[in-house]
Amino acid sequence: MATINISLPNTLALQLDELVNRFAFANRSEFIRSLLRRFFSDQALLQEGAVFPFVVPRTKSRKKIVSEFKKTGKYSPGFLEDLNKGLKNSRYFKD
Q: Is the model's pTM score more than 0.85?
């Protein structure tokens, strides 16, 4: 078995330890091996992981995207206007 070393920020290491304990893995290595087996066995998951966090939007509709942002009530009118302009300038998005 090959040995590899990785460095993690303390917060990520603590989250890892919480999951190891919650799911009763023997140790961090067992948990990471399990994640890797799952990751490599699912092509969709592998593709999503390869581009994360830059996932392709599910819609090309500029109006729908802006509408969804607006519905949340979290964004200012200025932000929504800038978002709309930015999407309008893109060749990827429609309407």
A: no
